[in-house]
Amino acid sequence: MTLGIGINFACTIDQISRFCYSRNSTSETTSPGALDIIASTLETAYMLACSSALAQLERVRQQTERLCEPLETEDYCIQPMLDASPPKWHLAHTTWFFETFVLKHAVANYQVFDSAYEYLFNSYYEGIGTRHPRSDRGLLSRPLVGEIYAYRKHVDDALQSLLAGTPDTECLRRIELGLHHEQQHQELLITDLKCNLGRNPIHPIYLEKPSLLVQPTSVQTTFIEHSGRMLEIGAELNKNPFCFDNELPRHSVWLAPYAIADRLVTNGEYLEFILDGGYETVSLWLSDGWGEKVARGWISPEYWFQEDGEWLEYTLHGVTPVDLESPVCHVSYFEADAYARWIGARLPTEFEWEAAAQTADHGERGTFAEDGHFHPRPQSPTFCGDCWQWTSSSYAPYPGYQPLEGTLGEYNGKFMANQYVLRGGSCATPVSHYRHSYRNFFYSKDRWQFTGIRLGRNLDN
Ligand SMILES: [Fe+2]
């Protein structure tokens, strides 16, 4: 299987523009004919970008609603914990993002759907104003689910009208960002829903398990060796025109010799850690990790439980025996770190991970959201899909990092403290949203995302 085509249209105009002018700059004067060609090329690129934006807008917005089709009205309002938002909130907040950062910016006299929504569905943008407390998102029985779907249609109609006109490139950039933002929330919608249903003692099924034509097979782990070298890390705009600001700028990093596993740690391997007393051996754990383990009563990954001596786990496709060949998931950074110490390895840095993923990329991938199988599956060697992978790298700005201008600058930059970087995407990540330079980030105690483990090792110089 190969990686899908990502969402990127706004940057295409910039690239063509740069190309035209760089070609033209080789001559001392610009002939009228050359100017006509440049203008015509740019106009064609602009029209293509608008039609691409329209198609991708429809696809992404419909996909969010498709994910909600299996839900009943009662499911839309549950907030199972502080970090996990109700489906209704995700549907509204992604719409609020387009209304706030695109329509209010680009459409003169835009009529908001409901003036109260700015307060209700602002997530964390201080520059926009005060907002409804995150802890209380599950207390909103009103607005009704039907009203939220009407809100989505109101905003979709306005965006379609905007794209049918002559939006500027800044507007296209914001729509592109809004689509990637919505895809991020598609993943959160799935993981937050799992948190809700997985904590329900009757373990409701979200979707019947799909029958997939291709079933990857698990293999023995091989450690891929990399020599010490200086290399470039970060998004390559000529390969992936869209990226978040935290993937830039591309910069040089020195890597000492290292080895990295060609697949994720499996449930069977993690079970050996449990059976060997991994959760009772304080010397394996970071101090803060041991504190969390004790306070939260961790004895296994999230969603695992025992019945008649057998390990079972809740999945969005129902309760199933723990599959020993599948990647272990729903572990915290602390558990990943303790496991790595137990096995005599370590977690890779995010730079080691990215360099290895780029080198090993022959188009293979694990499970992504488009597969409709919202649980990790046994893997062939690959670096992406199935589970986000904890790295040992703290989430920090790259040298020379510049957040987006204005209030959108709050999107990523202000979270660069006390979190760890995860790489690789998961079975709930849309593959059209993925690239190897993607930096996800969560707190070290977090377990409700599809988070797994890839091992790294030092090599002698
Ligand atoms: Fe958001």
Topology:
Elements (H helix, E strand, L loop, with lengths): L9 H15 L7 H37 L18 H20 L10 H5 L23 H20 L4 H30 L24 E4 L2 E5 L17 E5 L2 E4 L5 H9 L11 H10 L7 E4 L2 E6 L2 E4 L11 H11 L6 H11 L27 E7 L25 E4 L16 E3 L8 E2 L3 E3 L3
Helix pairs in contact: 1-2, 2-5, 2-6, 3-5, 3-6
This protein binds fe (ii) ion (FE2).
Fe (ii) ion binds next to helix 6.
**Alpha-carbon Rg, integer:** 23 Å
Q: Helical amount among residues, as a percent range?
A: 25-40%
Put simply, the count of helices is 10
Termini gap: 36 Å
The fraction of residues in strands falls at 5-15%
Tell me the name of the CATH class of the largest domain. Answer: Alpha Beta
Overall pLDDT metric: 92
- State the domain count: 2
What's the total number of strands?
Answer: 12
Structure description:
The chain is α+β, with helices and mostly antiparallel strands and 461 residues long. The chain contains 10 helices and 12 strands. The strands form 4 sheets. A 4-stranded mixed sheet has the order 10-9-8-11. Strand 5 (304-307) and strand 6 form a beta hairpin. The chain binds fe (ii) ion. Fe (ii) ion is lined by residues 93, 123, 181, 185.
